[in-house]
Amino acid sequence: MGADRAATVSIWSAALAALAILLFIIGAILWNGLGTALSPSFVFGKPQAMREGGGIWPMVVSSVYLSVLTLALVIPLGVGAAVYMAEFARAGRLARLVRFGADSLSAVPSVVFGVFGMVVFVIYLGLGYSLLAGALTLTLLNLPTVARASEEAIRAVPQSYREAALSMGCTRWEMVKKVVLPVAQPGITTGAVLTVGRIVGESAAVIYTVGLFVRKVPWSPFAPAAPMAANIWHMYTEGALVPDWFRVASGEAAFLLLSVLALNMAARMLAAFLRRKMGYSA
Amino acid sequence: MSHVLAREGEERPLLRVGLRSQKSGTGVDEEGHGVKFRLQGLCLYYGKDKILEDIDLDILEHRITAVIGPSGCGKSSFLRCLNRMNDLVEGCRVEGRALLDGADIYHRDYDVTSLRRKVGMVFQKPNPFPKTVYENVAFGPRLYGIRDRDILDGIVEMSLRRAALWEEVRDKLRQPALALSGGQQQRLCIARVLAVEPEVVLLDEPCSALDPIATQRIEDLLAELKESYTIVIVTHNMQQAARVSDYTAFFMIKGQGDPGRLVEYGETGMIFTNPADERTERYITGRFG
Which of A68, A140, A149, A75 is nearest to A110 (CA)? Predict the structure, then answer.
């Protein structure tokens, strides 16, 4: 009885500690930066060096642009791999190899991807510090998770739908295209939005491939850019040229945090909406 | 006497329903119904396991053929031989011949997707797609390339009418199919099959998940559908077989691990009132199975 009680108390306190740490971090970020993050002149403003009052608009655009580019690459690749694994691969050596590769890839620290991206995309392929180099690097980084999440969503599609489709005269590919993927779409969409969260939150991999600070909004995928996470790191470590670097970094961090939270909530709502549209109760 | 017996060891083909001709695909019964499916020495294997052995059977067009037998006797597997859904089972192999209108559906050159267009299937558990009622029925026609909105609307309405569902769903065409009741979902699945104008409709225990009223509806529907389609229904419910079918095939296994065999096949009236095989009689009178 006493041991049971002790176990309950310690498990509870562990959970509480985890929650408290999370709340402390979020609280600290918002405490320092919420006021700045909510001001339009900061979010849409031009960055400044040597004087105060700079904004972060090019960084916001960089993060959005990088996310879109990365998704455009990683979703087709990841979903394609997932379709292969879930629908076409027989339980053979190739499937095991692909899965092993994906699992190994997801255990590699992101800074290693950053260095790899710099060597291969930035230098060897001559892309320079650019959104494209970053998107390619982040594609490699996120491919395993996107593929795994999509594979799970595809496997969760009831077998009875596949049978119905095939019995109607669908080929395997028509079955995937017309039934399996539409039914798996809420799951795949959720995975994609969570990936956006990881993309905009990633700093190590983009520091080496995209850039840390820009004054102008990057319009070309070949242009250097400065995603928010990289810029925050830059401000904290090398922001001496910006007199109000702490205000900028804190505001940017709060803005990033709020964006990711909003994105995750939007993803949940979107998935629930899609499922309701299909007639599922939840 | 238009009755059929099939005992192991006896010569095949087993259907002697007054067939005027034994030539493949040209047989006709007393009422002039031709042979739709002719199975000759059909054996089915899943890997090393023999599921069905030596099935000889003629299925007549515009008739309802019921397949009955105890659980595990291979009646569902038999049904899935007719539209090659067994192909999905890894290690599945078929021996013997299965002729649809005289053409061997297991021949290398036979196109499986065109077979499944001709031979539609309704499953045990209603499995409409999680799309709207309309999209479910339009699924097949769209698959075969019909894009014209008016034509699709016409097909959807006609198919739902044939499946005796139109009146109940005419105002719900844009609603999710999963919001319908179980019985409505099953009739929707029938409408989905009818929308591609199949020649044969296979039903695998279509009422086992439905209540008696919904079951009654489906049974009434089958009686109407046989005017236009050849129907094969697997059922574990012998009253249902007796009520709806014209011909009945009784399958059985000797014991665990043995393949299913066709014990007896003939006119439903005869099978249920005067079976030739005592195993059929014992099964029908409820003494086993």
Answer: A140
Q: Which residue of A has its CA nearest to B121?
A: A167
| A143: Cα separation from own chain's centroid | 11
- pLDDT value at A211 more than 50: yes
pLDDT of res. B287: 62
Q: How close does chain A come to B232, measured CA to CA in Å?
A: 15
- What does the domain layout of chain A look like in residue ranges? 55-278
Contact check, Cβ <8 Å, A167/B140: no
Contact A174 B116 (CB under 8 A): no
What's the DSSP call for residue A88? Answer: I
Distance, in angstroms, between A178 CA and closest chain B CA?
A: 9
Which residues in chain A touch residue B88, judged by CB atoms under 8 angstroms apart? 163, 166
For domain B35-284, the CATH superfamily is P-loop containing nucleotide triphosphate hydrolases (3.40.50.300)
pLDDT(A203) > 50 = yes
Considering CB atoms only, which of A90, A161, A170 is closest to B143?
A: A170
Characterize the bridge pairing of strands B35-46 and B92-100.
antiparallel
> What confidence score (pLDDT) does residue A89 get?
79
For domain A55-278, the question of CATH label 1.20.1410.10 is answered with no
Residue B132: DSSP 8-state: B
CA distance linking residue B198 with residue A168, whole number of Å: 10
Q: Kindly provide the ipTM of the predicted complex, given to two decimals.
A: 0.84
Predicted confidence band at B196 (pLDDT cuts at 50, 70, 90)? very high
